[in-house]
Amino acid sequence: MALTMTACGPKAGKIFNEEWNTPYGTAPFSQITEADYVPAIKAGIEAQKAEVRAIVNNPDAPTFENTIAAYELSGELLAKVSGVFFNLSESDSTPEMQKIEEEITPLVTAASDEIFMDDAFFARVKAVYDNMDGLDREQQMVVKKLYDRFVLNGVALDEAGKARFAEINSRLATLSQKFGQNLLAENNAFKEAIGVTVSAYPDFMTTCEDRALREKAFKAYSSRCNNGGEHDNNAIVLEIMKLRTEKANLLGYKTSAEYLLADKMAGDPATVDAFLQPIMDASMRKAKEEIADMEAIAGHKIEPWDWFYYAEKVRALKYDLDESLTKPYFTADSVSKGVFYAAEKVYGIHVEPAPEVEVYNPVAKAYKLTDADGSLLGIFYQDWFTRDTKRGGAWMNNFRDQYVKDGVDIRPVIVNVCNFPPATEEVPSMLSIDNVQTAFHEFGHALHGFLTKCRYAEVSGTGVTRDFVEMFSQFNENFAFEPEILAVYAKDYRTGETIPAELVEKIGKSLKFNQGFTTGELCAASILDMKWHELTAEELEKFTDAQSIRDFETKVCGEMGLIDEIIPRYRTTYFNHIFNSGYSAGYYSYLWSEVLDVDAWEKFKADGVFNPATAKAFRETFLERGGSEEPMTLFRSFRGADPDPAALLRSRGLE
Ligand SMILES: [Zn+2]
After folding, report:
1. DSSP string for residues in 323-335
2. Annotated catalytic residue, options 138, 186, 442, 458
3. CA of 205 relative to ligand 1 center, distance in Å
């Protein structure tokens, strides 16, 4: 970002008001300064307020067009600023950006609350909702989504209730942000102490021969934001949980899990709990076998800091697969090529570099996606490499959503952000097998965003419930190690030689390896998330300090049957997904969506992975339709049956 702050004169923020005469209307990043954000956000909020006022004051009787469609087209300026700001505040989270975020977030939260607590506006939306007969399916889904948002945002509360609800939302937004900022600080502290980034932790634990150092790394990793001091997240977690529960209570739900699941595919906490526990049981059965294999090699008891290291030894022994042998075939450049090639081959689209499009960071790259007929699908930024100002993990996001305005199809601008190891002076960036899956995963989300053919941003692209959205990212992972795709992209950067068939076979087999651990830590985090959100207000009152949080984790892990050698993938104080992202009472979404993905993939396998008719049906049924139909209806129409939960255990080798 611009390092020089320009003066906050009357011009600040104006760049967002101007039409961007840039290729595809993408953001002119070099012309945006940090001083622009706050004034532009404020102007965007005011503009949308006026637009909503006009809808509410319309003397005509409410119709879909004059109320719902009109709302869908409101807030364009705010979306334009937010698209840039909230992406950059995650991928280039400098101290200046963090300060701006602290100022902006409460403003945006309050503005949204004002809209979704407005009785007069709700009365119009409800009038449309109560009479949806003449509407098509996409319109009905948009109405339903907006209606639910009003209800779940407390529109039915009395004035005092609304005021409290809004106050809670604002405080929650600030707390989440603080949680994320603390985590970023402690991730950087981890790097200082151990010498590797948090993203490189699994790799480090796999290869570090010094057991005492592994123990030190494990303890540092698993106690992030749990050490007292200025970046401790315990008090923040407790306040977040109490406020979330109070919000749920205000709306008549007993727990925040009930509230948060009300509009999701799973529907209620009991359904999620009943879904997760059998997966946990199967994982732990497998994990115990994995421990026996590792102890036979180690000659001592396996501690949590031994798992990655000895699992790799077992893998080398059982599958004769050593990641140091696969990595030269998976440079960032080759994997990027593979990700694009798979999408081109399966969906008949085209991806090409777009050097004319400006990027926000010199390491990010811009691409243009077009359909088979040459029409534009959208613009893609690929921002793969780790840096100190980037939040951990990997994600996809939109800078601009897809929607139709005045008959013009506005195409999306999408980013994939990852934390892959950058190149060094000696070697190019080389990805682990896990990284390769992540690259395909995030581009799966991107495809969901690019192939969409909706009219309203509310439901276009990834505008679906989060326990459905991961289906498409995880589905795309399936192509990563298909021999036909590998043959195109997996080439040794030193020799240009294609990955040998026997190594491909070994990778295929090894993907089911260590699934007791991998599934177990994922499932444990999913259950921990649920248990936090299933607490009642009275139960939460009993928590007093950091120790009570640790005791709760221990109790929950014991009850789910997690063995001592494994900890949840995220512990409470660094569980960013549920305390600073949209996955509260929602981390189960990965496993839930995987059932759908695996079941759909079984059809691809049966029909032939590159069967054009199957890919076309998948694209038309799911990817083009976003949230314009109920997920289960779409699934049944593609598969002709309900999803089979056992498909997940089969694919992970846990039966
Ligand atoms: Zn995802």
Report:
1. HHHHGGG-BHHHH
2. 442
3. 24
